[in-house]
Amino acid sequence: MKVVIPGGTGQVGAILKRGLTAAGHEVVVLTRRPVRAGEVGWDGRTLGAWAEVVDGSDVVINLAGRSVSCRYTPANLQEMMDSRVESARVVGEAIAGAVRPPRVWLQMSTATVYAHRFDAANDEATGVIGGAEAGVPKYWGYSVRIAKEWERAQERAETPGTRKVALRAAMVMSPDRGGVFDVLSWLARLGLGGPVAGGAQYVSWIHDRDFVRAVEFLIERDDLAGPVNLAAPGPLPQRAFMRALRAAWGMPVGLPATAWMAELGALVMRSDTELLFKSRRVVPGRLPDAGFVFDHAGWAEAADDLVRRARRSRKAARPGM
Prior knowledge:
- This protein has helices at residues 11-22, 51-54, 74-96, 139-156, 180-189, 208-220, 238-249, 259-268, 274-277, 286-289, 299-317, and strands at 2-6, 26-31, 39-41, 59-62, 104-108, 163-169, 171-173, 202-203, 205-207, 226-230, 236-237.
- By secondary structure, the protein is an alpha/beta fold.
- Strands 3-2-1-4-5-6-10 form a seven-stranded parallel sheet, with helices on both faces.
- Strand 4, helix 3 and strand 5 form a beta-alpha-beta unit.
- The two termini are 37 Å apart.
């Protein structure tokens, strides 16, 4: 099977490329700066020679979009919007113009599309789309708008021969360096991974290997189209989430952080507090209904597995080991 991954040089792209390559598939990555074998250049906005690799492929998995790990300034939010919508639009144009279009187009989306809430979980059927919540910063609504426009760009594409799936993904947890699990582990190991602003806000997540398995499942299931939540069935409050991560690392202490402390920390790390404060209580509905079974459904067990792999990776990387 030939899989084309636009925007596949980030953490999630690396996870997918590793998993799909190990399964024996040919993977081609579209990137603005191709440097490795199997990478093809594109600008994420205009059709070009890169469209030739889409023609005749079996699957396109579009991950392109500016990283959310930044300060949510108006300029950065606009770049997030433009990079996502324009890349989805031009991928649709490439598929529409293909003589042999791929049979499925998986388009990255985000669990952030759902409302900030504590009372109930959001699945695809009954979940509340965000953007109109009271008592939250107004710019949080722009993040929801980005997600909605991202999905709408795929919906509007004229690709009748290609099934389309929007991946409403939670945070993908992987032991790779630089990812969200690595950052959270760093805080936990320093004893800083305590409750943030009380810690009642929910954290939704998915283990990296379940993420790859879910993508493979969606590729094969011709009866699934439209939005699909890629999240483990066990979201939990941030204080419990970090408690389990600290336990996996053997760190008994987790200093709490007030809202203003979190604001200061986000500023220093050039990130945004929406990533910390928004309650993302998202669960899968369509995947389990279709027969998908999570290997890592609970966070405590998943954290133990990820920590074991992270330790092995660090040990292997040390000189002389």
